[in-house]
């Protein structure tokens, strides 16, 4: 496994008393970075969507982008009814779907997560409610917390016309309530393909719970999910590694 590249666009700042944090990944790869200055937002309660999908049969997929895919993946791995959540890239072409290219801003991709779920247990509207409230901040344009660039944009990639309709209606509903105090910048991008990210990005939050970026930016999202959506929260995450075994 090649060494994991550092996230180039993150402005890491550090107090003099805190040193360089080095993470040793599975397989011996390392990732070194400094603690980011910004932490995750507090829990944010928003109304449920007035338009939602009816429970179907089998499984369905949703593709969402909201900043670093480590945290978004981690959130949905803890949602009941989700059987798999895969970190990856969406919005660009196959030849640019690699971490060095995407993280450097050299593609049309966004870091995204493909969510496989049982619509009888969790609806698409409920997934969007979690996405808009605890997974990311939909009012930040081309950035999330310490990460900046179009690769960290807020975007929904519908997999069906019904999903596109529900997402558009929900954005309009939330903007109409003024619940955020700012306009939602989330884009709905139709027809995008999803490309899974490299293996070392999968289950990253679960595999590296003490990594500084995770502690500051992503673990609070899991805590907020448990606080705001206790009925949908599952303690044991649905891991990519488990889905493959």
TrEMBL record:
Residues 61-211 form the Peptide methionine sulphoxide reductase MsrA domain. Coiled coil: none annotated. SUPFAM superfamilies: Peptide methionine sulfoxide reductase (SSF55068). Keywords: Oxidoreductase. GO terms for molecular function: peptide-methionine (S)-S-oxide reductase activity. Gene3D superfamilies: Peptide methionine sulphoxide reductase MsrA (3.30.1060.10). It catalyses: L-methionyl-[protein] + [thioredoxin]-disulfide + H2O = L-methionyl-(S)-S-oxide-[protein] + [thioredoxin]-dithiol; [thioredoxin]-disulfide + L-methionine + H2O = L-methionine (S)-S-oxide + [thioredoxin]-dithiol. It is an enzyme of class 1 (oxidoreductase). Its EC number is 1.8.4.11. It comes from the Bacteria. The keyword Protein transport does not apply. The active site is at 68. Pfam families: PMSR. InterPro entries: Met_Sox_Rdtase_MsrA_dom (IPR002569), Met_Sox_Rdtase_MsrA_sf (IPR036509). HAMAP family: MsrA (MF_01401). Belongs to the MsrA Met sulfoxide reductase family. Has an important function as a repair enzyme for proteins that have been inactivated by oxidation. Catalyzes the reversible oxidation-reduction of methionine sulfoxide in proteins to methionine. This is Peptide methionine sulfoxide reductase MsrA.
């Amino acid at each position: 496994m090649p060494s994991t590249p550092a996230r180039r666009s993150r402005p890491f700042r550090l107090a003099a008393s805190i040193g360089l944090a080095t993470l040793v990944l599975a397989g011996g790869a390392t990732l070194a970075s400094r603690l980011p200055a910004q932490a995750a937002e507090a829990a944010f309660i928003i109304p449920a969507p007035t338009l939602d999908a009816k429970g179907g049969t089998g499984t369905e997929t949703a593709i969402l982008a909201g900043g670093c895919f480590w945290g978004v993946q981690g959130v949905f791995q803890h949602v009941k009814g989700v059987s798999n959540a895969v970190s990856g890239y969406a919005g660009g072409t196959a030849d640019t779907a690699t971490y060095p290219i995407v993280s450097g801003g050299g593609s049309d991709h966004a870091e995204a997560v493909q969510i496989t779920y049982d619509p009888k247990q969790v609806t698409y509207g409920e997934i969007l409610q979690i996405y808009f409230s605890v997974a990311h901040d939909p009012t930040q344009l081309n950035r999330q917390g310490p990460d900046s660039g179009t690769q960290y944009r807020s975007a929904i990639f519908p997999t069906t016309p019904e999903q596109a309709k529900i997402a558009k209606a929900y954005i309009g509903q939330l903007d109409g309530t003024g619940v955020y105090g700012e306009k939602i910048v989330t884009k709905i991008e139709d027809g995008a393909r999803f490309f899974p990210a490299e293996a070392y990005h999968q289950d990253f939050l679960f595999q590296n719970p003490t990594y500084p970026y995770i502690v500051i930016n992503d673990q609070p999202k899991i805590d907020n999910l448990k606080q705001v959506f206790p009925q949908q929260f599952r303690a044991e995450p649905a891991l990519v590694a488990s889905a493959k075994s």
